[in-house]
Write a structure and sequence with these properties.
The chain is of the alpha/beta class. It is built from eleven helices and 15 strands. The chain has a seven-stranded mixed beta sheet with strand order 3-2-1-12-13-14-15, with no helix packed on it. A four-stranded antiparallel beta sheet has the order 4-5-9-8. Strands 7-6-10-11 form a four-stranded antiparallel beta sheet, covered by helices on one side. A hairpin with a 2-residue loop joins β8 and β9. The radius of gyration is 23 Å and the shape is globular. It starts with 27 loop residues before the first strand and ends in a 13-residue tail after the last helix. Bound molecules: iron/sulfur cluster (2 copies). The site of one iron/sulfur cluster (SF4) has 10 residues, from loops.
């Protein structure tokens, strides 16, 4: 049977559309050094003038998360009342050709239209399928779905397990037309003896349950949410062990602005529920709590966590600096931006990593 898709292929144009509502207000908090909280980096940047939704110097993360600012934002996006609103001038939307940021989690597909869900096929798997000429089949909990090679409009309108693998993308529906993002079943593509799981969400963990809850609240446009934030980005210090003349933090450092000491522990209390934590500096290795987290984090603490940080790398030990010393399955995105051999860096690395925190004293974070 020949197959003619009714829409332009995402391989030829943009990715297929999904429920086009920004997911950040249901997922993300970005906290800067002043304690101000925004939902994304497009809110008050890129010619946008959104005001903070709260301040961790005044309120806890939980209070801000369901405070007036976040509630109003969720309402505006759900009701699509975005005139004269920062989200009506969203750079992310423009850059993505009219697609708001999707719900972010380790599930490789998203709603497309009606019963249809879509997502990119893992690259290696797609290459293998193409070269072998063997059809790629989709399995739900180990059972093959009934209608491969379906018309895309039929997948959308009828669902029922119809699916199509098309130009690097999978379009599919479930046999009972339930939402595969939250029905708890596992999906897998198979081509000959090669298999590719679609997503890697650990649903039984606190973060997995929190993500499923957040996803449902996002889809339903819930204003006061019970799910906790699943993505936190934190700027915790402007201090650094290096003194780069062109550092963007130089002015910030001079002002000695700092969020209150409760902020970092509050963020860390959210760790079991997070899918992503990004920790920025200055140099985060100056912060004892940061080093403790990096040293003691265990994958089983939160199997869904992707942890990223920005560091000049001078205090990373030799063992850590070997890329293969950081197990890939720990989801650590180790961003080593600069390897410096200067005296101060060597000294600080030795002293701080051996437990002598003398050089960490300039940091006002503990
Ligand atoms: S729509 Fe744009 S500006 Fe509004 S929260 Fe989402 S990413 Fe930020
Ligand atoms: S290493 Fe980075 S944070 Fe530190 S002074 Fe240089 S530019 Fe600034």
């Amino acid at each position: 049977m020949s197959k003619v898709p009714e829409t332009a292929s995402p391989a030829d144009t943009a990715a297929p559309s999904s429920a086009n509502r920004c997911a950040y207000p249901w997922q993300q908090m970005i906290i800067d050094l002043t304690g101000e909280v925004v939902p994304c980096c497009f809110w008050s940047g890129y010619s946008n003038f959104g005001t903070p939704l709260g301040n961790t110097n005044e309120r806890s993360l939980a209070e801000i998360w369901n405070g007036e600012g976040y509630r109003q934002l969720r309402r505006a996006l759900t009701e699509n009342t975005l005139e004269n609103h920062p989200c009506g001038n969203c750079a992310a939307y423009r850059w993505a050709n009219g697609q708001f940021p999707r719900f972010g989690w380790p599930v490789d597909f998203a709603p497309e239209q009606k019963y249809c869900f879509s997502g990119p096929i893992p690259e290696k798997f797609g290459r293998h399928a193409e070269q072998s000429g063997t059809p790629a089949l989709l399995f739900e909990n180990g059972i093959p779905l009934p209608y491969p090679d379906s018309q895309h409009q039929e997948i959308r309108d009828l669902g029922g397990g119809r699916y199509s693998v098309w130009k690097g993308w999978l379009y599919f529906s479930t046999p009972d037309n339930s939402d595969p993002c939250s029905n708890g079943r596992h999906y897998q593509l198979r081509c000959g003896d090669l298999t590719a799981p679609l997503g890697n969400l650990h649903r039984d963990s606190k973060s997995g349950q929190n993500l499923v809850q957040a996803y449902e609240e996002y889809l339903n446009g819930v204003e006061v949410v019970s799910a906790k934030p699943s993505m936190i980005s934190l700027i915790s210090t402007a201090d650094c062990n290096i003194d780069c003349p062109a550092c963007s933090q130089n002015m910030v450092r001079l002002t000695r602005v700092q969020h209150r000491p409760e902020t970092v522990p509050d963020v860390l209390d959210h760790l079991p529920y997070l899918q992503q934590l990004i920790w920025h500096g200055g140099e985060p290795y100056l912060i004892a709590r940061f080093r403790k987290l990096v040293d003691e984090y265990q994958r089983e603490d939160n199997p869904n966590l992707a942890f990223g940080f920005t560091s000049n790398g001078t205090m990373i030990t030799a063992a850590e600096a070997e890329a293969d010393q950081v197990p890939a399955d720990q989801c650590f995105n180790l961003g080593r931006q600069l390897r410096s051999g200067n005296f101060r860096a060597d000294q600080s690395r030795r002293q701080i990593r051996s437990g002598d925190d003398e050089l960490a004293r300039p940091s006002r974070i503990t």
